[in-house]
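Is this the right way to post structure tokens for a design question? Let me know if I should format differently. Anyway, here goes:
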């Protein structure tokens, strides 16, 4: 699709096209976005049951931009976040699945308590 890819109408058309090609999105729970309001609005119109979350990388970039230059690089180091996700996957892999959101949150909370010690 050509044209202004950042406009709300372009994003609406993009999601309509995905649906025409078979994406139902009935079980879609979350869309990770870069903060573009037009994209978020079009996504919520197309998938009203799904929640929207700011992408971690974009969120960190926004935070880093407000910090002194000396420490910006440290803020943008994603290795600790990647290690945390890897450890979460390692610990939960043997569970086969997490039955509900509360179970997932409890696992993350328990891990974060260990990380803070």
């Amino acid at each position: 699709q050509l044209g202004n890819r950042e406009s709300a109408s372009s994003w609406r058309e993009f999601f309509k096209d995905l649906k025409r090609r078979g994406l139902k999105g009935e079980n879609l729970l979350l869309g990770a976005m870069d903060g573009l309001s037009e994209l978020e609005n079009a996504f919520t119109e197309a998938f009203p049951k799904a929640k929207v979350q700011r992408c971690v990388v974009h969120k960190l970039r926004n935070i880093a931009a407000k910090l002194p230059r000396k420490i910006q690089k440290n803020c943008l180091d994603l290795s600790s976040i990647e290690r945390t996700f890897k450890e979460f996957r390692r610990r939960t892999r043997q569970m086969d699945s997490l039955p509900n959101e509360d179970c997932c949150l409890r696992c993350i909370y328990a891990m974060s308590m260990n990380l803070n010690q």
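Format looks fine. Someone answered above. Worth noting: The CA atoms of residues 30 and 51 lie 5 Å apart. The chain has two domains: 1-77, 79-117.
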